[in-house]
Amino acid sequence: MNPSFPIRPEAAQTKVSGIVEVVDYGRLKPGLIPLWVGEGDLSTPAFIAEAATRSLAAGETFYTWQRGIPELRAAIAAYMGRVYGRSFSPDRFTVTIGGMHAMQIAARLASGEGDEVIVPTPAWPNFAGALGVAGARVVEVPMTLSELGWRFDANEIARAVTKRTRAIVINSPSNPTGWTATGEELRAVLELARDKGLWIIADEIYGRYVYDDAIAIDGRAPSFHDYAQDDDLILYCQTMSKNWAMTGWRIGWIEAPAALGQTIENLVQYSSSGVPVFVQRAAITALEHGESFVAHQIARARRGREIVYDALAGIPGLVAPKPPGALYAFFALPGRDARATAFRLIDEAGVGLAPGGAFGDNARDCLRLCFARKAEDLEETMRRLEPVLTEIAGAAA
Ligand SMILES: Cc1ncc(COP(=O)(O)O)c(C=O)c1O
User: Fold this and answer.
1) Which of 205, 236, 244 to mutate to test the pocket of ligand 1 (most atoms within 8 A of CB)?
2) Tell me, what's the pLDDT at 394?
3) Is 99 in the pocket of ligand 1 (CB under 6 A)?
4) Domains in the chain and their CATH numbers?
Protein backbone atom coordinates (compact mmCIF):
# COMPACT_ATOMS: atom_id res chain seq x y z
CA MET A 1 0.00 0.00 0.00
CA ASN A 2 1.43 3.37 -1.05
CA PRO A 3 0.09 6.08 1.30
CA SER A 4 1.30 9.05 -0.78
CA PHE A 5 -1.15 8.74 -3.67
CA PRO A 6 -4.93 8.66 -3.41
CA ILE A 7 -5.43 5.50 -5.48
CA ARG A 8 -8.39 3.13 -5.18
CA PRO A 9 -8.13 0.44 -2.48
CA GLU A 10 -8.72 -2.31 -5.10
CA ALA A 11 -5.47 -1.22 -6.77
CA ALA A 12 -3.60 -0.45 -3.57
CA GLN A 13 -4.23 -3.89 -2.10
CA THR A 14 -2.72 -5.78 -5.07
CA LYS A 15 0.18 -7.94 -3.92
CA VAL A 16 3.60 -8.67 -5.38
CA SER A 17 3.63 -12.29 -6.53
CA GLY A 18 5.48 -14.56 -4.10
CA ILE A 19 7.19 -16.17 -7.09
CA VAL A 20 8.65 -12.92 -8.42
CA GLU A 21 10.91 -12.24 -5.42
CA VAL A 22 12.52 -15.67 -5.84
CA VAL A 23 12.88 -15.19 -9.61
CA ASP A 24 14.42 -11.74 -9.08
CA TYR A 25 16.91 -13.22 -6.65
CA GLY A 26 18.02 -16.04 -8.94
CA ARG A 27 17.43 -14.97 -12.53
CA LEU A 28 21.04 -13.92 -13.25
CA LYS A 29 22.73 -16.89 -11.59
CA PRO A 30 24.87 -18.63 -14.25
CA GLY A 31 23.79 -22.18 -15.09
CA LEU A 32 20.55 -21.99 -13.09
CA ILE A 33 17.77 -24.32 -14.27
CA PRO A 34 14.60 -22.21 -14.04
CA LEU A 35 11.52 -24.31 -13.25
CA TRP A 36 9.66 -21.70 -11.26
CA VAL A 37 7.18 -20.40 -13.82
CA GLY A 38 4.46 -22.22 -15.72
CA GLU A 39 5.95 -22.60 -19.14
CA GLY A 40 8.00 -25.12 -21.04
CA ASP A 41 11.35 -24.79 -22.75
CA LEU A 42 10.11 -25.13 -26.36
CA SER A 43 9.53 -22.01 -28.41
CA THR A 44 6.47 -21.76 -30.65
CA PRO A 45 6.75 -24.08 -33.69
CA ALA A 46 7.83 -22.28 -36.87
CA PHE A 47 4.67 -23.19 -38.81
CA ILE A 48 2.60 -21.26 -36.23
CA ALA A 49 4.95 -18.25 -36.14
CA GLU A 50 4.99 -18.12 -39.96
CA ALA A 51 1.22 -17.63 -40.05
CA ALA A 52 1.76 -14.43 -38.04
CA THR A 53 4.56 -13.13 -40.26
CA ARG A 54 2.49 -13.84 -43.38
CA SER A 55 -0.37 -11.85 -41.87
CA LEU A 56 1.92 -8.91 -41.04
CA ALA A 57 3.45 -9.01 -44.53
CA ALA A 58 -0.07 -8.89 -45.97
CA GLY A 59 -0.73 -5.68 -44.03
CA GLU A 60 -3.12 -7.01 -41.39
CA THR A 61 -2.16 -4.25 -39.00
CA PHE A 62 -5.51 -2.59 -38.34
CA TYR A 63 -8.11 -2.57 -35.56
CA THR A 64 -10.27 -5.64 -35.73
CA TRP A 65 -13.35 -7.45 -34.42
CA GLN A 66 -13.62 -6.97 -30.66
CA ARG A 67 -14.80 -10.54 -30.19
CA GLY A 68 -12.08 -12.02 -32.38
CA ILE A 69 -11.98 -12.59 -36.14
CA PRO A 70 -14.81 -14.89 -37.25
CA GLU A 71 -12.35 -17.46 -38.69
CA LEU A 72 -10.66 -17.85 -35.29
CA ARG A 73 -13.95 -18.14 -33.40
CA ALA A 74 -15.01 -20.85 -35.85
CA ALA A 75 -11.64 -22.61 -35.40
CA ILE A 76 -12.01 -22.52 -31.61
CA ALA A 77 -15.52 -23.99 -31.84
CA ALA A 78 -14.26 -26.78 -34.13
CA TYR A 79 -11.29 -27.51 -31.83
CA MET A 80 -13.52 -27.67 -28.76
CA GLY A 81 -15.85 -29.99 -30.66
CA ARG A 82 -12.96 -32.37 -31.39
CA VAL A 83 -11.69 -32.37 -27.81
CA TYR A 84 -15.04 -32.59 -26.01
CA GLY A 85 -16.95 -34.69 -28.53
CA ARG A 86 -19.96 -32.40 -28.99
CA SER A 87 -20.77 -29.38 -31.11
CA PHE A 88 -20.12 -25.78 -30.04
CA SER A 89 -21.46 -22.55 -31.53
CA PRO A 90 -18.78 -19.91 -32.30
CA ASP A 91 -21.16 -17.46 -30.59
CA ARG A 92 -20.00 -18.84 -27.25
CA PHE A 93 -16.39 -17.70 -27.73
CA THR A 94 -14.62 -14.36 -27.40
CA VAL A 95 -10.89 -14.04 -28.07
CA THR A 96 -8.88 -12.47 -25.24
CA ILE A 97 -5.35 -11.37 -24.38
CA GLY A 98 -4.44 -14.76 -22.91
CA GLY A 99 -6.16 -16.79 -20.23
CA MET A 100 -5.42 -13.98 -17.77
CA HIS A 101 -7.62 -11.51 -19.64
CA ALA A 102 -10.34 -14.17 -19.87
CA MET A 103 -10.12 -14.51 -16.08
CA GLN A 104 -10.27 -10.75 -15.63
CA ILE A 105 -13.42 -10.55 -17.75
CA ALA A 106 -14.96 -13.51 -15.89
CA ALA A 107 -14.23 -11.82 -12.54
CA ARG A 108 -15.91 -8.61 -13.71
CA LEU A 109 -18.94 -10.43 -15.12
CA ALA A 110 -19.59 -12.42 -11.99
CA SER A 111 -18.47 -10.32 -9.02
CA GLY A 112 -17.78 -6.88 -7.63
CA GLU A 113 -17.71 -4.74 -4.50
CA GLY A 114 -19.16 -6.59 -1.51
CA ASP A 115 -19.33 -9.98 -3.26
CA GLU A 116 -17.59 -13.17 -2.20
CA VAL A 117 -16.00 -15.69 -4.55
CA ILE A 118 -14.94 -19.14 -3.37
CA VAL A 119 -11.51 -20.38 -4.40
CA PRO A 120 -10.18 -23.80 -3.32
CA THR A 121 -6.51 -23.38 -2.35
CA PRO A 122 -3.61 -23.79 -3.05
CA ALA A 123 -4.46 -21.85 -6.22
CA TRP A 124 -2.87 -19.85 -9.01
CA PRO A 125 -2.50 -16.42 -7.31
CA ASN A 126 -3.90 -14.54 -10.31
CA PHE A 127 -7.43 -15.72 -9.46
CA ALA A 128 -7.34 -13.76 -6.21
CA GLY A 129 -5.55 -10.93 -8.00
CA ALA A 130 -8.21 -10.54 -10.70
CA LEU A 131 -11.09 -10.93 -8.25
CA GLY A 132 -9.55 -8.40 -5.87
CA VAL A 133 -9.16 -5.83 -8.66
CA ALA A 134 -12.85 -6.37 -9.47
CA GLY A 135 -13.58 -5.49 -5.82
CA ALA A 136 -14.65 -8.98 -4.71
CA ARG A 137 -13.54 -10.79 -1.57
CA VAL A 138 -11.91 -14.19 -2.03
CA VAL A 139 -13.06 -16.91 0.37
CA GLU A 140 -10.43 -19.62 0.46
CA VAL A 141 -11.46 -23.24 0.96
CA PRO A 142 -8.22 -24.99 1.89
CA MET A 143 -7.60 -28.42 0.41
CA THR A 144 -5.42 -30.88 2.34
CA LEU A 145 -2.37 -32.85 1.24
CA SER A 146 -1.70 -36.45 2.14
CA GLU A 147 0.25 -39.32 0.56
CA LEU A 148 -2.91 -39.89 -1.54
CA GLY A 149 -2.83 -36.40 -3.05
CA TRP A 150 -4.74 -33.17 -2.56
CA ARG A 151 -8.24 -33.77 -1.22
CA PHE A 152 -11.19 -31.77 -2.53
CA ASP A 153 -14.56 -31.84 -0.79
CA ALA A 154 -17.60 -30.29 -2.45
CA ASN A 155 -19.33 -30.22 0.97
CA GLU A 156 -16.68 -27.79 2.21
CA ILE A 157 -17.42 -25.58 -0.78
CA ALA A 158 -21.13 -25.73 0.09
CA ARG A 159 -20.39 -24.76 3.70
CA ALA A 160 -18.45 -21.67 2.52
CA VAL A 161 -21.45 -20.30 0.58
CA THR A 162 -23.05 -17.22 2.17
CA LYS A 163 -25.65 -14.68 1.04
CA ARG A 164 -22.83 -12.69 -0.55
CA THR A 165 -21.34 -15.55 -2.59
CA ARG A 166 -21.50 -14.98 -6.34
CA ALA A 167 -19.09 -17.50 -7.84
CA ILE A 168 -16.89 -20.55 -7.36
CA VAL A 169 -13.54 -20.87 -9.14
CA ILE A 170 -12.70 -24.42 -10.20
CA ASN A 171 -9.28 -24.93 -11.77
CA SER A 172 -9.00 -28.54 -12.89
CA PRO A 173 -6.38 -29.83 -13.52
CA SER A 174 -4.95 -27.39 -11.00
CA ASN A 175 -1.98 -25.12 -11.01
CA PRO A 176 -0.12 -25.72 -8.69
CA THR A 177 -1.38 -28.98 -7.17
CA GLY A 178 -2.20 -31.05 -10.26
CA TRP A 179 -5.45 -32.05 -8.52
CA THR A 180 -7.89 -33.10 -11.21
CA ALA A 181 -11.62 -33.20 -10.50
CA THR A 182 -13.46 -36.45 -11.12
CA GLY A 183 -16.73 -36.32 -13.02
CA GLU A 184 -18.53 -36.86 -9.73
CA GLU A 185 -16.81 -33.86 -8.12
CA LEU A 186 -17.68 -31.62 -11.08
CA ARG A 187 -21.30 -32.76 -10.95
CA ALA A 188 -21.46 -31.96 -7.22
CA VAL A 189 -20.15 -28.42 -7.81
CA LEU A 190 -22.52 -27.92 -10.75
CA GLU A 191 -25.51 -29.03 -8.65
CA LEU A 192 -24.50 -26.68 -5.84
CA ALA A 193 -24.06 -23.77 -8.28
CA ARG A 194 -27.45 -24.47 -9.90
CA ASP A 195 -29.13 -24.76 -6.53
CA LYS A 196 -27.72 -21.46 -5.21
CA GLY A 197 -27.70 -19.53 -8.52
CA LEU A 198 -23.91 -19.11 -8.46
CA TRP A 199 -21.47 -18.69 -11.32
CA ILE A 200 -18.74 -21.24 -11.88
CA ILE A 201 -15.50 -19.81 -13.23
CA ALA A 202 -13.99 -22.90 -14.85
CA ASP A 203 -10.28 -22.76 -15.65
CA GLU A 204 -9.62 -25.94 -17.62
CA ILE A 205 -6.49 -24.75 -19.42
CA TYR A 206 -4.53 -27.88 -18.44
CA GLY A 207 -7.35 -30.18 -19.53
CA ARG A 208 -5.21 -32.01 -22.09
CA TYR A 209 -2.58 -32.91 -19.45
CA VAL A 210 -4.00 -35.82 -17.48
CA TYR A 211 -1.97 -38.84 -16.44
CA ASP A 212 -4.44 -40.91 -14.41
CA ASP A 213 -6.49 -43.21 -16.64
CA ALA A 214 -8.99 -43.81 -13.84
CA ILE A 215 -9.99 -40.12 -14.00
CA ALA A 216 -9.48 -39.33 -17.71
CA ILE A 217 -12.28 -39.25 -20.28
CA ASP A 218 -11.06 -39.92 -23.84
CA GLY A 219 -7.51 -38.99 -22.83
CA ARG A 220 -8.39 -35.58 -21.35
CA ALA A 221 -9.54 -34.38 -17.94
CA PRO A 222 -13.24 -34.44 -17.07
CA SER A 223 -14.80 -31.06 -17.84
CA PHE A 224 -17.93 -29.15 -16.95
CA HIS A 225 -18.64 -29.52 -20.67
CA ASP A 226 -19.38 -33.18 -19.96
CA TYR A 227 -22.30 -32.32 -17.65
CA ALA A 228 -23.45 -28.72 -18.20
CA GLN A 229 -26.09 -27.19 -20.49
CA ASP A 230 -25.24 -24.22 -22.70
CA ASP A 231 -27.19 -21.82 -20.48
CA ASP A 232 -25.65 -22.94 -17.18
CA LEU A 233 -23.87 -20.12 -15.33
CA ILE A 234 -20.36 -21.14 -16.32
CA LEU A 235 -17.54 -18.93 -17.60
CA TYR A 236 -14.66 -20.93 -19.04
CA CYS A 237 -11.17 -19.41 -19.28
CA GLN A 238 -8.87 -20.83 -21.95
CA THR A 239 -5.50 -20.07 -23.47
CA MET A 240 -3.22 -20.86 -26.39
CA SER A 241 -0.25 -20.48 -24.01
CA LYS A 242 0.47 -24.00 -22.81
CA ASN A 243 -0.68 -26.51 -25.45
CA TRP A 244 0.98 -24.68 -28.34
CA ALA A 245 3.95 -23.12 -26.48
CA MET A 246 2.57 -19.60 -27.04
CA THR A 247 2.92 -17.99 -23.59
CA GLY A 248 4.47 -14.82 -25.04
CA TRP A 249 1.81 -14.31 -27.72
CA ARG A 250 -0.87 -13.41 -25.18
CA ILE A 251 -3.92 -15.02 -26.71
CA GLY A 252 -6.72 -17.11 -25.24
CA TRP A 253 -10.49 -17.06 -25.05
CA ILE A 254 -13.46 -16.86 -22.74
CA GLU A 255 -16.43 -19.14 -23.30
CA ALA A 256 -19.83 -18.09 -21.96
CA PRO A 257 -23.53 -18.44 -22.72
CA ALA A 258 -24.02 -16.87 -26.18
CA ALA A 259 -26.51 -14.33 -24.79
CA LEU A 260 -23.62 -12.62 -22.96
CA GLY A 261 -21.70 -12.03 -26.20
CA GLN A 262 -22.43 -8.32 -26.52
CA THR A 263 -21.59 -7.61 -22.87
CA ILE A 264 -18.29 -9.49 -23.17
CA GLU A 265 -17.56 -7.60 -26.37
CA ASN A 266 -18.09 -4.36 -24.43
CA LEU A 267 -15.69 -5.49 -21.71
CA VAL A 268 -13.08 -6.26 -24.38
CA GLN A 269 -13.74 -2.84 -25.97
CA TYR A 270 -13.09 -1.07 -22.67
CA SER A 271 -10.00 -3.08 -21.67
CA SER A 272 -7.80 -4.29 -24.55
CA SER A 273 -9.97 -3.30 -27.56
CA GLY A 274 -9.13 -6.61 -29.17
CA VAL A 275 -6.31 -8.98 -30.00
CA PRO A 276 -3.87 -8.25 -32.89
CA VAL A 277 -4.99 -9.92 -36.12
CA PHE A 278 -1.58 -11.45 -36.85
CA VAL A 279 -1.64 -13.15 -33.44
CA GLN A 280 -5.12 -14.48 -34.21
CA ARG A 281 -3.90 -15.87 -37.56
CA ALA A 282 -1.19 -17.79 -35.70
CA ALA A 283 -3.81 -19.14 -33.30
CA ILE A 284 -5.94 -20.44 -36.21
CA THR A 285 -2.94 -22.31 -37.62
CA ALA A 286 -2.14 -23.75 -34.19
CA LEU A 287 -5.72 -24.96 -33.65
CA GLU A 288 -6.09 -26.42 -37.15
CA HIS A 289 -2.63 -27.92 -37.67
CA GLY A 290 -1.07 -28.16 -34.20
CA GLU A 291 -2.45 -31.45 -32.95
CA SER A 292 0.74 -33.47 -33.40
CA PHE A 293 2.68 -30.72 -31.58
CA VAL A 294 0.18 -30.88 -28.69
CA ALA A 295 0.59 -34.68 -28.58
CA HIS A 296 4.36 -34.16 -28.43
CA GLN A 297 3.98 -31.67 -25.56
CA ILE A 298 1.77 -34.09 -23.62
CA ALA A 299 4.19 -37.02 -24.12
CA ARG A 300 7.08 -34.82 -23.01
CA ALA A 301 5.22 -33.70 -19.87
CA ARG A 302 4.33 -37.30 -19.06
CA ARG A 303 8.01 -38.27 -19.29
CA GLY A 304 9.05 -35.19 -17.28
CA ARG A 305 6.62 -36.12 -14.52
CA GLU A 306 8.09 -39.66 -14.36
CA ILE A 307 11.66 -38.38 -14.09
CA VAL A 308 10.81 -35.93 -11.34
CA TYR A 309 8.67 -38.30 -9.28
CA ASP A 310 11.05 -41.26 -9.61
CA ALA A 311 13.70 -39.04 -8.01
CA LEU A 312 11.40 -37.48 -5.39
CA ALA A 313 10.31 -40.97 -4.28
CA GLY A 314 13.91 -41.65 -3.24
CA ILE A 315 14.11 -38.65 -0.90
CA PRO A 316 12.90 -39.51 2.60
CA GLY A 317 10.74 -37.05 4.50
CA LEU A 318 8.88 -35.51 1.57
CA VAL A 319 5.15 -35.70 0.96
CA ALA A 320 5.11 -36.07 -2.81
CA PRO A 321 2.12 -37.89 -4.27
CA LYS A 322 2.08 -37.97 -8.06
CA PRO A 323 -0.29 -35.36 -9.49
CA PRO A 324 -3.00 -36.73 -11.80
CA GLY A 325 -2.81 -33.70 -14.11
CA ALA A 326 -1.23 -30.35 -15.18
CA LEU A 327 2.46 -29.55 -15.55
CA TYR A 328 3.73 -29.28 -11.99
CA ALA A 329 5.30 -31.25 -9.20
CA PHE A 330 3.99 -29.74 -5.96
CA PHE A 331 5.46 -31.44 -2.93
CA ALA A 332 5.84 -30.69 0.78
CA LEU A 333 8.79 -30.65 3.15
CA PRO A 334 6.66 -30.79 6.30
CA GLY A 335 7.68 -28.21 8.89
CA ARG A 336 10.02 -26.39 6.54
CA ASP A 337 9.59 -22.82 5.29
CA ALA A 338 9.49 -23.24 1.52
CA ARG A 339 10.41 -19.61 0.85
CA ALA A 340 13.74 -20.07 2.65
CA THR A 341 14.19 -23.43 0.92
CA ALA A 342 13.59 -21.87 -2.51
CA PHE A 343 16.37 -19.31 -1.89
CA ARG A 344 18.67 -22.08 -0.63
CA LEU A 345 18.00 -24.22 -3.73
CA ILE A 346 19.07 -21.32 -5.94
CA ASP A 347 22.34 -20.90 -4.03
CA GLU A 348 23.21 -24.53 -3.36
CA ALA A 349 21.59 -26.49 -6.22
CA GLY A 350 21.33 -23.93 -9.01
CA VAL A 351 17.64 -24.75 -9.49
CA GLY A 352 14.75 -22.27 -9.41
CA LEU A 353 11.49 -23.51 -7.84
CA ALA A 354 8.40 -21.55 -6.78
CA PRO A 355 7.60 -21.36 -3.04
CA GLY A 356 4.20 -22.80 -2.09
CA GLY A 357 3.20 -19.80 0.03
CA ALA A 358 2.59 -17.93 -3.24
CA PHE A 359 -0.40 -20.24 -3.81
CA GLY A 360 -1.96 -20.27 -0.34
CA ASP A 361 -1.22 -20.27 3.37
CA ASN A 362 -1.83 -24.02 3.48
CA ALA A 363 1.16 -24.57 1.15
CA ARG A 364 3.91 -22.70 2.97
CA ASP A 365 5.94 -25.90 3.20
CA CYS A 366 5.47 -26.83 -0.49
CA LEU A 367 7.56 -26.22 -3.58
CA ARG A 368 6.40 -26.13 -7.19
CA LEU A 369 8.50 -27.41 -10.08
CA CYS A 370 7.34 -27.17 -13.71
CA PHE A 371 8.22 -30.42 -15.50
CA ALA A 372 7.39 -29.23 -19.06
CA ARG A 373 11.03 -29.47 -20.05
CA LYS A 374 13.47 -31.73 -21.83
CA ALA A 375 14.44 -34.95 -20.07
CA GLU A 376 18.17 -34.14 -19.75
CA ASP A 377 17.44 -30.88 -17.90
CA LEU A 378 15.05 -32.61 -15.52
CA GLU A 379 17.53 -35.41 -14.84
CA GLU A 380 20.19 -32.82 -14.08
CA THR A 381 17.69 -30.90 -11.92
CA MET A 382 16.95 -33.95 -9.81
CA ARG A 383 20.66 -34.81 -9.46
CA ARG A 384 21.21 -31.30 -8.09
CA LEU A 385 18.13 -31.21 -5.86
CA GLU A 386 18.52 -34.64 -4.27
CA PRO A 387 21.36 -33.90 -1.76
CA VAL A 388 20.02 -30.48 -0.74
CA LEU A 389 16.39 -31.64 -0.31
CA THR A 390 17.57 -34.73 1.57
CA GLU A 391 19.48 -32.53 3.99
CA ILE A 392 16.64 -30.05 4.48
CA ALA A 393 13.93 -32.73 4.84
CA GLY A 394 16.20 -34.72 7.19
CA ALA A 395 16.84 -31.67 9.35
CA ALA A 396 13.07 -31.19 9.67
CA ALA A 397 12.47 -34.74 10.87
C1 LIG B 1 -4.39 -22.02 -14.02
C2 LIG B 1 -3.98 -21.00 -15.02
N3 LIG B 1 -4.94 -20.33 -15.66
C4 LIG B 1 -4.65 -19.41 -16.58
C5 LIG B 1 -3.34 -19.12 -16.92
C6 LIG B 1 -3.17 -18.03 -17.92
O7 LIG B 1 -2.27 -18.16 -18.87
P8 LIG B 1 -2.08 -17.05 -19.98
O9 LIG B 1 -2.48 -15.73 -19.44
O10 LIG B 1 -0.64 -17.14 -20.36
O11 LIG B 1 -2.94 -17.44 -21.10
C12 LIG B 1 -2.30 -19.79 -16.26
C13 LIG B 1 -0.89 -19.49 -16.54
O14 LIG B 1 0.02 -19.96 -15.90
C15 LIG B 1 -2.63 -20.76 -15.29
O16 LIG B 1 -1.71 -21.49 -14.65
Assistant:
1) 205
2) 83
3) yes
4) 9-44+292-392 (3.90.1150.10), 62-289 (3.40.640.10)
